[in-house]
Write a structure and sequence with these properties.
alpha/beta, five-stranded mixed β-sheet, 5 helices, 16% strand
């Protein structure tokens, strides 16, 4: 379901925007702490947030501390299972190959993301791991939710890093 078009007053679109705004706030916290500003929120099938995280690679000195990975771990702890059937992940940036692989392994229900990652995106921009022959699980993907805000957040953060 990549590229679905929504009307601005569509309740489903409004709901996606609400959760993406939370992910953007988490990404702000990551950026303020010196990490690349990426935030993630996982919602259960009842529409309740069960996990959220922000990038922590620099702070944790851990190359795997991407927002998605940390949110998956927290959701697994909350649900007491590694299977995230029916859950939706909201993330500000298209997942990388590591994170896309983890989403497949977690049996994620749906992925909603903000900005495409033209360098390392593994959902549609560079690779498409969920739909590839190596994937044993497929899930719907909705890209471009609050894309402009997500992209500007990243561009501003990297611009500030380069100028200082």
């Amino acid at each position: 379901m990549i590229g679905r078009k929504y009307l601005l007053d569509d309740p489903e679109y409004q709901n996606h925007c609400r959760w993406m705004e939370r992910a953007i706030a988490l990404a702000d916290a990551a950026g303020d702490a010196g990490d690349v500003p990426v935030g993630a929120v996982i919602i259960n099938p009842q529409g309740q947030a069960i996990a959220e995280a922000e990038n922590r690679r620099e702070r944790d000195h851990d190359p795997t501390a991407h927002a998605e990975i940390l949110a998956l771990r927290a959701a697994g702890d909350t649900l007491n299972t590694w299977r995230l059937d029916g859950c939706t992940l909201y993330v500000t940036l298209e997942p990388c190959p590591m994170c896309a692989g983890a989403l497949i392994l977690a049996r994620l229900g749906t992925l909603v993301y903000g900005a495409d990652d033209l360098k390392a995106g593994a959902i549609r921009s560079v690779l498409n791991l969920p739909d590839s022959a190596c994937s044993n699980h497929r899930f719907p993907v909705i890209g471009g939710i609050l894309e402009t805000s997500c992209r500007q957040q990243l561009q501003s953060w990297f611009g500030n890093r380069r100028s200082s």
